[in-house]
Amino acid sequence: MELPQPDSAAQQHSAAVCAHILTEAQGHTLAFEQFMQWALYAPNLGYYSAGLKKFGSQGDFVTAPELSPLFGQCLANVCAETLPQLSQGCVLEFGAGSGRLALDVLQHLEKQHQLFPDYYILELSADLRARQQALFKEQAPEYLPQLHWLDSLPSTPLNAVVLANEVLDAMPVQRFVIDGEQLQALTAHWQGQRFEWQMQAPSERLSEAFKDKQAQLDSPLPNGYSSEINLNIKPWLQALSKSLNQARVLLIDYGQDQYNYYHPQRHRGTLMCHYRHYAHEDPFFYPGLQDITADVDFSAVAQAAKQTGFDLVGYNPQAEFLLGSGLPILLDQALAKQDYPDFLHTSQHAKQLILPQAMGERFKVMALSKGLNTSAPLGFAEDKRYML
Ligand SMILES: C[S@@+](CC[C@H](N)C(=O)[O-])C[C@H]1O[C@@H](n2cnc3c(N)ncnc32)[C@H](O)[C@@H]1O
To answer: Which domain holds residue 219?
Structure first.
């Protein structure tokens, strides 16, 4: 696929990202997980840390909150159901992007439910934090006293509804290939001009994780099969669990259960890059200028959640979740306004959120609980935990 070429300033930025990776790696070959970490998050340089426009039609990809406020309004309904069960309950959002989701949630909580919770945002990127603050200053300065930006998880446990939309897919993954029936790590190797894939003996950490995963699958992964394992989600859940007293957590992302994730037909894995609305498979295309993601293995997330003190209380495709958490009522309300051009616009976006060939099936929503009753939250009256 012919990708659009970046201009010379952008190319220079990418060269600086490569130089940073090589200096930090102290060599020409590094684990892919480490490459992805620096390409996305190297301070002031990585894709999420530097000032590139990432979200929306001018950026590289569009997320559900950027598409329509309906998404945040449904999440707000789950917040409204849970917050009264929490003592001094707040909302904690990870990786808040442009700040759109936070704004939609707070506006809907105020208008529909008369709730004004404190809203914490844990944002790794200084640039995105500044954009989120600018959005609120411009569009809803009255919420600023409720908003708190965090650099790390709080040491005093919170009672919170936790939201993480498209955060897990942005965590660095390990990449592997089965070569001659042996597990090999796929590493990033600097060829002088650009990085390329190179096979290496796997680390003990990858070997152990792979052995565990293979034992849970029906048959051995075939020769030539390559895929990913995310070893960062469990430590993240562990740290999150420690910082929560009572909580409901909603994880929304693209991905599937492990049988589909490691299906023999998915033999090239799930790694995907996004550059100016082109989706492609080359993570070494101009490091720092593009998003790099991998699907989420929700079976692994469920196991890690149970091991770190959470109850798994729901798992559904995004369509089922949204239809069960208020989307039909929101559409009825939009229709009742009798502004038909506006309604057409709203319903087109609703379709993108729920149609199977758009985001409805590919995205899943997982609900976890801690220190609360384990009844199903809104959106999970019937759910698909049995798939995991
Ligand atoms: C694809 S963007 C999604 C942004 C936003 N949630 C949305 O839906 O538009 C991924 C975000 O996850 C954030 N992220 C990844 N790992 C994180 C972590 N461990 N803690 C907090 N944020 C993280 C990134 O910084 C980035 O802002």
So the answer is: 1-388
The pTM score is 0.96
Q: What is the pLDDT of residue 6?
A: 92
For residue 243, the SS3 value is: coil
Q: Positive or negative CA dihedral for 308, 293, 72, 104?
A: positive
Distance CA 303, CA 164 (A): 18
Residue nearest to atom 27 of ligand 1 (CA): 95
Atom 5 (ligand 1) nearest CA: 97
Q: What is the pLDDT of residue 2?
A: 85
- 275's CB contacts (< 8 A; 6+ apart) are 3, 4, 60, 285, 286, 289, 290, 291
Q: CA-CA distance, 250 to 248, in Å (whole number)?
A: 7
Q: How far is CA 368 from CA 153, 191, 328, 372, in A?
A: 18, 44, 24, 10
pLDDT at 58 over 80: no
The mean per-residue pLDDT over the stretch 78-101 comes to 96
Q: Is 359 in the pocket of ligand 1 (CB under 6 A)?
A: no
pLDDT, position 1: 73
**Cβ–Cβ under 8 Å, residues 73 and 104:** yes
| 57 confidence band (pLDDT: 50, 70, 90) | low
Number of domains observed in the structure of the chain: 1
On the question of pLDDT at 59 being above 80, the answer is no
CATH code (residue 103): 3.40.50.12710
